[in-house]
Design brief:
Layout: H1 21-28, H2 41-54, H3 63-70, H4 72-79, H5 85-111, H6 117-129, H7 136-151, H8 154-179, H9 186-196, H10 203-208, H11 216-219, H12 222-250, H13 256-264, H14 268-293, H15 299-319
Helix pairs in contact: 1-14, 2-4, 2-5, 4-5, 4-15, 5-7, 5-8, 6-7, 6-8, 7-8, 8-9, 9-13, 12-14, 12-15, 13-14
Length: 335
């Protein structure tokens, strides 16, 4: 490949118009998993609104409008189409919480990583030590933790808390990277993105959805662990494609497509194609590994991995139509 990658061309099947950046993504991204939707989505939507109001999060200026643009219950429905209504509600509220938390962290971290510390330390204290919250956002997290403990086994709830702490730590790394963006290369970006994705905290809920617990050997099998990493990366990198225009305009850094654009000094369209190559390879590896291990998995193990499939599929279908990322349709497919 050349230094700029501008020679990358788009393969377009006959008769399919490619006019916007969203069309470019749809044409080149390989999504082998069919669209599914949870039948309890409308209940989850109402539940999210009530839960955010209960903890005072929509009293904060801009949050209600952000939630309307983001549609967390829709993302929960698309990623978790087979969950019962109770678990779906937890997933939807957790997604909503993470968007509120993430946006506030970005706002604070933009000024200084140090301004994030009280917010992040409160979250870690709640998740690790069970301390009482001191803010509405902390109270919402404590309530999520309570709901998870009610639906999950102690081991599953512990995994949920650990993965959630990883997400919290990732936001501090992101703030540090934003403070000195010229030092952030693609590899650094993907390492931080794997934490800030916030996808893996949902996987213990898919454990809880199974009729019996996974065995430790199955849960910690190297192939299953690799599937977890691949699915989270594929899901969040796909969202990065559609959010790239929004995040570029906002001056954000931790996005796979924008990282390729910085590193190769190319157009956003060429960077999107480079990111798609990476995502397609990741999804192909996931499929191959899943085919290899599926005969060895218990029914619970298959259900758990299907939860990972849901995030790959769901993030794509949600990202391409959600108002939060509508800017992707304002940019032409050609540079």
């Amino acid at each position: 490949m050349s230094a700029t990658h501008e020679e990358i061309t788009v393969g377009v099947p006959d008769g399919i118009p490619v006019s916007t950046l969203r069309d470019l993504i749809d044409t080149n991204l390989r999504m082998p998993f069919p669209f599914l939707r949870n039948p309890h989505e409308s209940e989850a939507t109402a539940g999210v609104d009530a839960w955010l109001s209960l903890w005072g999060l929509t009293d904060v200026p801009g949050v209600a409008a952000m939630i309307a643009r983001t549609r967390p219950a829709e993302l929960a429905s698309f990623t978790s189409p087979t969950l019962d209504s109770g678990l779906l509600q937890i997933v939807a509220c957790q997604i909503a919480y993470q968007f509120v938390f993430d946006d506030r962290a970005e706002d604070l971290g933009r000024h200084s990583p140090g301004r994030l510390l009280p917010m992040l330390c409160e979250s870690i204290a709640i998740l690790r030590d069970g301390r009482a919250p001191s803010t509405p956002l902390g109270a919402a997290l404590a309530d999520l933790h309570r709901q998870v403990r009610q639906r999950c086994t102690p081991a599953q709830a512990a995994r949920w808390a650990w993965q959630s702490r990883e997400y919290v730590h990732g936001l501090l790394y992101e703030a540090v990277a934003q403070a000195d963006p010229f030092l952030v290369r693609t590899g650094d970006c993907t390492s931080i993105r794997s934490l800030t994705a916030g996808v893996e905290p949902f996987y213990p809920l898919y454990e809880a959805a199974q009729p019996r617990e996974l065995s430790p050997a199955e849960l910690h099998d190297p192939v299953v662990r690799r599937l977890s990493r691949l699915s989270a990366d594929a899901a969040v990198w796909t969202a990065d494609l559609f959010s790239a225009v929004k995040e570029q305009r906002a001056g954000e850094m931790i996005n796979l497509a924008l990282a390729h654009q910085r590193e190769h000094q190319c157009s956003l369209q060429a960077a999107i194609l480079l990111a798609i190559q990476e995502i397609n390879a990741t999804i192909e590896e996931f499929q191959n590994l899943y085919t290899e291990i599926e005969p060895q998995l218990s029914p619970a193990g298959v259900g758990y991995v299907e939860g990972m499939v849901g995030w790959i599929r769901g993030c794509y279908h949600w990202s391409r139509t959600v108002p939060r990322y509508a800017d992707v349709m304002s940019v032409p497919a050609a540079p």
